[in-house]
Amino acid sequence: MRKIIILFISLLFSLTAFSQEFDVIGELDDDFSNILNFEEAKPYKSTHMLGVKYSYHISTVKCTPDIGAGYEFLDRNLSVMYTYYNSMWNSLPYFGLTTGIKYGTEGFTSSKTNYGYTYDIVEMPVLSEFHIDVSRFRILAEIGGYCGYKLKTDKPGGFDNYDIRYDYGLEAGGGVALIFKPFELQLKGEYKYSLCSDFHANKFSDIYWIYCYPRNIMISCGLYIHLW
Hints:
Strand 6 (117-134) and strand 7 form a beta hairpin. The protein contains one helix and ten strands. The chain is elongated, with a radius of gyration of 33 Å. Strands 1-4-5-6-7-8-9-10 form an eight-stranded antiparallel β-barrel. It has one domain: Porin (Beta Barrel), CATH 2.40.160. It is mainly beta.
């Protein structure tokens, strides 16, 4: 029995010496400083861009009651745009704002007489733009509103007191961009939904009222320069 106890004690001392020699566990910090030592995120560089955009419009109106409205295909639409991309909380670099001034032509055709016409309009869109950057490409999505004013029309006699020349509504779209700094080429498809009728409801009759709201499908190409 005595030999067994002596052998057990000798084995215990041998294991203790072995663990100290090879430092199996190693020393531990007692303040957890290494656990909470995270690398700070790099600050996101904001992007400012100025550019020109050309749009091709497929233009019509939604009328109640129906007047047989058709589409006008219009290619005289040009914009000067400013875009700002920034980061939310310096960790979500997906947001931006785009605005500018647009001069263009809109309108509609009609199967009934005295209804169809086109007009020139100046607009200012204000859109929230979301983007995901992949190498030299951006995936774009935007939504917001616009306001505008109709300058002139091709209908006989021009605008009268029953016509509403100001305009406002909603705009949304999406597209892709190719980046070759300091330039950026953007291709988009957009839809514009007016919340303002083209004229007062009693324009043609005090008994039978009519409401016509412009609609536009827009295919655009824009060339931008990165300012800083």
